[in-house]
Amino acid sequence: VIKSSLPAVQSYALNSFGRGANTMVAVTESADDNSLSFRNVGGFLKLKIYGDATIKRIELSGNNGERIAGNATIEPIYNSAPEVVMADDASTHITLDCDNGVKLGASSSSATQFWFVLPATVFEKGITIEVESGDGAVYEHTTSKRVEIERNTIQPMSPFEPKFAVPTPADNQIWYTTTDGRAVEFDS
What we know:
Distance between the termini: 61 Å
Shape: elongated
Low-confidence stretches: none
Order of helices and strands: EEEEEEEEEEEEEEEEE
Number of strands: 17
């Protein structure tokens, strides 16, 4: 049995999962066996997001408190799929870090893909996705439908367009709205 930590922060990669996010294990039949067949520990959730925004980060969580990152035990099984058990102190969310920001595709047919690597999990009550734009606006997308992540399988989600809320200024700030509808702090 391997004690491991599945990453709670993953990095964006173009049309794939980020470096270091996909844990794999291998086990041989005996000490004399030199053939290692590595198997993915988790499965993949592929979001497709479009619109006129640049995305800074995306946070994913289950609506039923499912543990999806952090401490876990992994049991590699010869000629079979590894078994993963998340620890009681495992995290209930994963953040996808988009570093300097990722510009979205303009339409559902050209939506930008965002990949999460997850342990095999059934989100019985759906998932919540919090999307933060480059200018700090946040949009929450929730589904109550059951979502199942199977090991070594891609679970695609339907494309969606975030409708970012205009940030509310503090009482001691003056803001104005530009012709394109963005709220901007007044610079004196």
